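Design request, tokens follow.
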């Protein structure tokens, strides 16, 4: 009797009626989730490492027990069978769960080029859909593509065509064209194809479907190699392409367009000047059709501090044409603190500057430039810089203005009013000590209204406001 009770055969009959999971099924209890048509090949390889050894030991006989004990593993088992072409496994699964259309099985089989599995699925009454064809096209499996072309009435999507284009799969594109199942493609697909450098595909699209903007596509995707190819075949860019290349900073494209076409105009040269590309400017000037530049070009070079570009542009202007240079050039150099350029312009040019030169230099606290302008120019500042300095609380600029422009009309009561409004106590005190303009009758109320009661109290004690009032403006 004891030998019967300890028999392994008897244990095998008892265990199915016990709670729990068989030991060999424990590795599958972990949640694997759904494996979709977009799952990476590496993920299926990891799944295969777990399930294939189990099949080798137990075969498919225990598969129903596995899925009964671990039902959350059902999708993974279905999709594993489809992806690796396991016919016996798939037949068992369909016998247990015939309604398995939601698992995208044909798409997974198509993704791994399992044409026999796709055929087997149709024999099991699985219904193919267009997305299955799309997967075959996007994965580049020519045999699978031929199957869908010959055995179904589907047209793949233009998204699938776009993917084939970016991969350079002319063989697949030609198959679909020849089968008269061409669904078209999108502009996005063309640009992605250009970005991937698939020149042969783009030329094929031109020959077969009239894609005529290949030069523009090459420029838009910064593909000089493609531009050179299509340009040699007679595809010419446009002025808009020049604008785009410059705005995007595609310097190689810009240089090619500048040297190989006559599309550039003076404003385009201004943009190249702003990029500081002196080497390209010199190459362009050697050409017989130099487009020239406008007065905006030197100003932008000056703002960027490109002294070599400024010197070179000056060397081209033998007649000192007022159309090519303006006061704004020195204004920009001063405003950005480029003293060397200010000095060069003062020495070699006659345009001079405007009051903006001093205003911008002081606004940006370029005191070396400001001192140079005091010594070399007579324009001086505008009244704006006085108010701005007081509003910002820039006592160093105010001190500079007091030292060099003590009688300027910019000295008004507005300065102390603005300093009081913005809470700059040190500026209020400095103006009270060094200047005689004082403030307006609104200074106290401006200070209080903006939460600067300490300044309001000080102004009251000084008794300098013409008519002190607490009214709110």
């Amino acid at each position: 009797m004891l030998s019967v009770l300890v028999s392994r055969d008897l244990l095998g009959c008892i265990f199915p009626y016990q709670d729990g999971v068989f030991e060999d099924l424990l590795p599958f209890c972990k949640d694997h989730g759904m494996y979709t048509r977009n799952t990476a090949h590496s993920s299926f390889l990891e799944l295969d490492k777990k399930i294939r050894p189990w099949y080798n030991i137990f075969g498919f006989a225990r598969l129903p027990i596995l899925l009964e004990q671990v039902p959350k593993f059902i999708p993974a088992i279905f999709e594993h069978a489809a992806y690796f072409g396991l016919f016996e496994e798939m037949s068992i699964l369909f016998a247990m769960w015939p309604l398995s259309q939601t698992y995208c099985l044909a798409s997974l089989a198509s993704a791994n080029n399992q044409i026999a599995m796709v055929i087997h699925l149709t024999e099991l009454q699985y219904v193919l859909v267009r997305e299955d064809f799309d997967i075959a096209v996007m994965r580049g499996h020519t045999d699978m593509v031929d199957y869908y072309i010959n055995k179904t009435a589907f047209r793949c999507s233009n998204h699938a065509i776009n993917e084939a284009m970016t991969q350079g799969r002319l063989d697949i594109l030609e198959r679909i064209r020849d089968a008269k199942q061409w669904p078209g493609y999108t502009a996005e697909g063309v640009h992605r194809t250009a970005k991937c450098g698939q020149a042969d595909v783009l030329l094929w699209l031109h020959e077969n479907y009239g894609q005529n903007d290949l030069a523009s596509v090459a420029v838009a995707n910064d593909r000089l190699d493609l531009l050179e190819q299509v340009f040699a075949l007679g595809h010419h860019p446009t002025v808009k392409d020049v604008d785009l290349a410059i705005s995007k900073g595609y310097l190689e494209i810009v240089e090619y367009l500048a040297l190989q076409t006559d599309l550039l105009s003076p404003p385009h040269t201004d943009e190249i000047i702003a990029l500081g590309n002196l080497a390209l400017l010199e190459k362009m000037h050697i050409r017989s059709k130099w487009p020239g530049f406008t007065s905006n070009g030197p100003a932008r070079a000056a703002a960027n501090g490109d002294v070599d570009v400024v010197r070179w542009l000056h060397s081209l202007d033998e007649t000192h044409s007022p159309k090519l240079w303006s006061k704004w050039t020195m204004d920009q150099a001063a405003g950005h603190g480029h003293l060397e350029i200010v000095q060069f312009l003062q020495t070699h040019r006659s345009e001079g500057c405007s009051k903006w030169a001093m205003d911008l230099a002081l606004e940006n606290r370029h005191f070396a430039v400001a001192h140079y302008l005091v010594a070399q120019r007579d324009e001086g500042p505008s009244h704006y810089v006085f108010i701005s300095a007081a509003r910002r609380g820039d006592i160093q600029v105010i001190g500079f203005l007091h030292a060099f422009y003590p009688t300027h009309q910019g000295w008004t009561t507005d300065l102390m009013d603005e300093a009081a409004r913005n809470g700059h106590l040190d500026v209020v005190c400095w103006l009270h000590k060094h200047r005689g303009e004082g403030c307006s009758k609104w200074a106290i109320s401006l200070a209080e209204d903006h939460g600067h009661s300490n300044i309001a109290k000080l102004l009251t004690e000084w008794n300098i406001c013409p008519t002190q009032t607490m009214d709110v403006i």
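Comment from the thread starter after seeing the answer: thanks! The two ends are 110 Å apart (CA to CA).
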